[in-house]
Amino acid sequence: MSRRVSSPDAYEDLVKKTLNRHIPFKVDWEITYRCNLNCIHCYQTGPRSEPELSTKEIFSILNQLAESGCLYITFTGGEALLRDDFFEIAGYARQKEFAIRIFTNGTLIDDGVADRINALNPLTVEISLYATEPCLHEQMTGVSGSFKKTVQAFHLLKERSINTVLKCTFTQHNIKEFDRLKEFSREIGSEFVFSFTVIPKIDGSQEVTRLRLKEAQLKDLFASHKELVSGIEAGGVNSYQPLCAAGFNSLYISPYGEVFPCVVLRECCGNLRDTPLEDIWNAPFFKKIREVEFKDLKSCFGCDFSYYCDRCAGLAWLEANDLFGPSPNDCLLARVRRDALERKDKSYGKEKEAVLQ
């Protein structure tokens, strides 16, 4: 039986069905924590002394994922391409008819690697670029020469008609690069995906969050970029909706076989080295988060900003150690969104009034 999804409508239908039936059809897999960069905003704490999953162990897990109904796998790190067996792993995933995405910093992509990536026919290759100025990008990555290699990766993949995504986390250091990166992504034919959230370290350290943008900076950015406001609409929140897809139709796997609801919500539900995926997927913590609905969030339910909030349970967990509480970062972004929408409505009202006069 084919495991392919035939159309966007079929995909949306599949998402709904897998959410309702609790089928893990999307997996984010950090196959290594090793990295050749030293990004100042990274949430990782580096590799551990224990061995990473072997090729054989990964093949076994891929077999279990296929049997569970999984269709989409994102291979990331660390830097995923640092694994000597990366193409063996990704190739086996494609043999099992998984659709794959690759997250990378791009610095290891030369002509030969680009050819091997092309042979995998990935959905996308998503590359992190933090500035169009070499010195600023390398201030973020901590490695001299990384800018040239990353930019080269975009061009090598474009030459092979591989879908690329330019990803960027904006911080105090690079927020002025927003327009330049947007234009660069247009020039190279990449989708532009960005975030204003610097995630705390997975060990709970909040030090990196000092790099986050201030509320005034975000409001100024939203005010000067109408495209950031165009997709914002205040709408009702279903009291019975789940917190997010994590644990419903998606999960995260670490380089050591640990399974978590997502890359941010780091509550280990079991290890695939000694426990079958099916048993882990039905672990107590997974069941717990599936039972939680928006109405159970006492601090969030009824909040004036809830209509504008993309609350992340994992962030609430990391920032306040409270799965059911608010995330200060998400609260800030919700305030900014509401402010932007109110400004948009006032501007529209003035324009309409001028036309009528």
Spell out the blueprint of helices and strands.
Elements: H1 8-21, E1 26-30, H2 55-68, E2 72-76, H3 86-95, E3 99-104, H4 111-120, E4 124-128, H5 134-141, H6 146-159, E5 164-169, H7 178-188, E6 191-195, H8 215-224, H9 226-230, E7 250-253, E8 259-260, H10 277-281, H11 284-291, H12 313-320, H13 328-356
Explain what the structure shows.
There is one protein chain. The protein has 357 residues and is of the alpha/beta class. It has a single domain (17-292), classed as Alpha-Beta Barrel (TIM Barrel), CATH 3.20.20.70. The protein contains 13 helices and eight strands.
Structural features:
alpha/beta; 357 residues; 13 helices; eight-stranded mixed beta sheet; TIM Barrel
Could you give a short description of this structure?
The protein has 357 residues and is an alpha/beta fold. It is 41% helix and 11% strand. It contains 13 helices and eight strands.
* CATH homologous superfamily classification: Aldolase class I
Uncertain residue ranges: 348-357
Shape: globular
Instruction: Provide the number of structural domains.
Output: 1
How far apart are the first and last residues' alpha carbons, in Å?
Answer: 64 Å
| Rg of Cα set | 21 Å
For this structure, the CATH topology is: TIM Barrel
So how many helices? 13
Name of the top-level CATH class: Alpha Beta
> What class, by secondary structure content?
alpha/beta
Sketch the topology as an H/E string, one letter per element: HEHEHEHEHHEHEHHEEHHHH
Q: Percentage of helical residues?
A: 40-55%
Number of strand elements:
8
Strand content: 5-15%
Q: Averaged pLDDT, please?
A: 90
CATH architecture: Alpha-Beta Barrel
Strand order within the widest beta sheet:
6-5-4-3-2-1-7-8
